[in-house]
Amino acid sequence: MSEITRDVVIVGAGAAGTTAANELRKAGLSVAVLEARDRVGGRLWTDVIDGAMLEIGGQWVSPDQDALIDTVAELGLETYDRYREGDSVYVGPDGTSHRFTGEMFPVAPETERVIAELTERLDAMVAEIDPDRPWEHPNAGEWDSISWDSWLRAQTDDDEAVRNVAFATGSAMLTKPTHSFSLLQSLLMAASAGSYSHLVDADFILDKRVVGGLQQVPLLLAERLGDDVFLGQPVRSLEWSGPSTGSGGVTAKTDTMTVRARYAILAHAPVLYSRIQFIPALPRRQHQLHQHISMGFVIKVHAVYDRPFWREQGLSGTAFSPYELSHEAYDNTNHGDERGTLVGFVSDQNADDVFTLSAEERKERILESLSHYYGPEAKNPIVYYESDWGSEEWTRGAYAASFDLGGLTRYGADQRTPVGPIHFACSDMAGAGYQHVDGAIRMGRLVAADIIEEARA
């Protein structure tokens, strides 16, 4: 077993871990990044499947994501606009598809009024939320004790309005059933993007893509770290000094390596903390916290065609319906590719349900749902692939983790609190950019700055 010594050991080579490692190196601290997978990137993964380049993980860049935008520019990467010319499609409760333009779904005038009123009310509530400290709002306790679904249904008995407002943070972002998380968790999700209106505006939240794929961000950051990144090295144990003995350092052990360091950063999803044996055990507070946070679940469906046929029909590729198996879908054609790619999403309970089916039947049902938006040609892609992060050993869900009812006010303030020399950084605990690559980069920078300040003290 090899043994090395560094100032900081970082567990996880995703965007948070590689960002933190580079910031620490710039400050003159030595690092070792231990990654369980055989690749860099975490929940960012660009791969070629049956000859088609697919963004298996995160991929979009929105205008408010300054940390990501700056990093993309600094790495010399180029971006391009998501295709959005033409009509969007909405499928209503009776299964009829409607073409429309603009942000408002083509619903009955009364339903449109209710959606507009709820959106305005939510924007006002979100404006009062600090995404870094949502639990400090005067109404946080109340808002965290009622589910997102219950709150919406207390505002109106218009079921279509409720479903359309609810799915932006439910199926689309937190990827959990709307009865399973709180109003406050939903407001945090919106506050992390600047407003609820931003979150429901596909042209804002899904604005640009990176030429060649977003995984290049952590790949290029890891490239700068050279031999300090170690792949295929899941950390089995982490010994650390207890509070009574001060910050005496850490010892991280994998199956083939031992890394001794002054500090550790856990830069991976919090649902994986339990995969590491901590010696001594983490404090009671952390043990409780980690039992109240869980991953959502969404299948990202990639369907590649010989051409973007929907454009010939004057469709943008943007499609929504809270009644469809695939609740949203977009034109995901790669930069400079003559083939056309659609990306659809199957979320929460629907995702659970289709995995009880055979692979062939699941594919058939998902493509049938896409055909309700784009017509029968959608049923015959030349490449079909499902991103199933729920089966990933080192991820266990998507897109990120969120608290159960009441968990955010009870434990949220402790998510980032260091335990002795152990620090925590990932998109799951970001404020701005929560659940996004932008948030991962912000958290990597923040934790690196904290350690640099501590090391110099």
UniProtKB/TrEMBL annotation:
Its cofactor is FAD. The keyword Oxidoreductase applies. Keywords: Oxidoreductase. InterPro entries: Amino_oxidase (IPR002937), FAD/NAD-bd_sf (IPR036188), Flavin_amine_oxidase (IPR001613), Flavin_MAO (IPR050703). It comes from the Bacteria. The keyword Oxidoreductase applies. Residues 16-452 form the Amine oxidase domain. Gene3D superfamilies: FAD/NAD(P)-binding domain. Belongs to the flavin monoamine oxidase family. This is NAD(P)/FAD-dependent oxidoreductase. It comes from Microbacterium pumilum.
